[in-house]
What we know:
- There is one protein chain.
- This protein is of the alpha+beta class.
- It has one domain: NADH Oxidase (3-Layer(aba) Sandwich).
- It is 35% helix and 16% strand.
- It has a 4-stranded antiparallel beta sheet.
- It is globular, with a radius of gyration of 17 Å.
- The two termini are 34 Å apart.
- The structure holds flavin mononucleotide.
- The site of flavin mononucleotide has 7 residues, from strand 3.
Amino acid sequence: MTVLDTQQNETIRIILGRRSVRVFEERSVEPEKVELILECAFAAPTAMNAQPCHIVTIDDKELLTKIGAANERTRMAGGAPLAFAVCVDVANYEKVHRLTDGTWMEDSACVMENILLAARALGLEGVWLQIANRPGREEVVTPMLRLPAGVRILAMALVGYGAESKAPHSGVDEARLHRNAW
Ligand SMILES: Cc1cc2nc3c(=O)[nH]c(=O)nc-3n(C[C@H](O)[C@H](O)[C@H](O)COP(=O)(O)O)c2cc1C
């Protein structure tokens, strides 16, 4: 295998093959897979290695249905067997690490991507459901997950066995690529 043989490179195939899948089979995700996804989630890089992200796993069907019913845009949560809500105690993060530049969102985004890629690597699919700063989402989901004061949720990764398939990504968008300078 050469470095350029992308079809043979498992990691590259997983990255290019990850797509947003919004329809899931009903079957639940094995606990060992959930644990591996969590291990990958907590391995994500964070600013100043602050590691501020907490994760609320949700496999309670009733709760997922409630989140799905909360808002037209969160509806797909009701059809997922599993979700990972990525949260940060923002007030504490800003006080302790003196990072008031919003890096908690970037930290959380890295965690989200690790979850989605790990899911794909384990034969699962997933989608990013944005919660923070979306009217009708954050204020509804926060009490449902009983998040303490000061804790914010960036997004939820909905994960499960996919019931739709999508073509993998391929190629570089030359229109958006600038070499050395724009
Ligand atoms: C920051 C961010 C927020 C997103 N929010 C949502 C969302 O709320 N609902 C949704 O269905 N998809 C959401 N997505 C998924 C995008 O729609 C999806 O990644 C995009 O359409 C590209 O498709 P792909 O993931 O299959 O490559 C979000 C993705 C990102 C990165």
